[in-house]
Design brief:
The structure is a single chain. The protein is mainly α. The chain has nine helices and four strands; from the N terminus they run ββββααααααααα. A two-stranded antiparallel sheet has the order 1-4. A two-stranded antiparallel sheet has the order 2-3. A hairpin with a 3-residue loop joins strand 2 and strand 3. The chain is globular, with a radius of gyration of 18 Å.
């Protein structure tokens, strides 16, 4: 997972009306994230076209049934869930790394299908990380404490399966408030979460927390108690 600072448009260091210029912050997707973003973006375009394509609508429904299941549960969804061989790992025989990548793609795409359900707005949007989306949800929700509790539970989940459970609930809340998410970035996050070195949770936690803070939720917003001490590797 790669982090970057996005340079603002060229202008003076100080804006006469708004004060010092603040540099926006964002993330670059990995090649895996780009693959998922292309897949989801194409499906979204077909489902939300002026005349929605029946196959895309059917695929979204079948993908939703795959949330929490293992990759390969439905061979008819191969075009949406298959991972190119060059993204499966450094070595052809590295089955564990390939399985982690396949799970990340599967879970990101199936969660997108849940997010897009019954919505005519684009629920996949490039550049919107989970922390930023949840900060928006806190602002818009009539029950922000429930959002904070879910976010905190996600940050302290003891297993990948538990993380997906909490992400499913948060995705439903994002859908209800029409808040989009970059599913390529989420796929990168899920791949990091499954990191075999055991540090994936703290790395992803730090990224989501920084996104949440830097989106300026407001002075009365209490950020969930997550560990932000780990720096994400470049």
């Amino acid at each position: 997972m790669t982090l970057m600072d996005v340079e603002p448009p060229e202008r003076g260091d100080v804006d006469r009306l708004s004060g010092p210029t603040r540099r926006p912050w964002g993330r670059r997707r990995s090649r895996l994230g780009d693959h998922v973003a292309r897949t989801v973006g194409a499906l979204q375009a077909r489902a939300l076209s002026a005349v929605p394509q029946p196959e895309a609508i059917s695929a979204l429904a079948r993908l939703r049934r795959g949330i929490g299941r293992s990759p390969g549960f439905d061979f008819t969804l191969e075009r949406y869930l298959q991972v190119p061989e060059d993204l499966l790992g450094r070595r052809p025989d590295d089955d564990a790394e390939a399985a982690d990548t396949e799970h990340a793609v599967h879970d990101a795409v199936t969660l997108y299908a849940l997010h897009q359900q019954s919505r005519r707005e684009r629920m996949h949007l490039d550049g919107r990380g989970l922390g930023q989306a949840l900060a928006d949800l806190v602002r818009k929700s009539a029950g922000p404490e429930g959002v904070r509790r879910r976010f905190a539970a996600l940050g302290t989940a003891s297993s990948y399966h538990e993380s997906i459970h909490h992400l499913r609930s948060l995705t439903t809340m994002l859908r209800e408030h029409q808040i989009p998410l970059d599913y390529g970035l989420l796929a990168d996050d899920l791949r990091t979460l499954r990191s075999p070195d055991g540090l994936g949770q703290s790395r992803v936690q730090a990224v989501w927390g920084r996104e949440f803070f830097r989106s300026r939720p407001g002075p009365d917003t209490v950020v969930p108690a997550t560990d932000l001490s780990e720096e994400d590797p470049s």
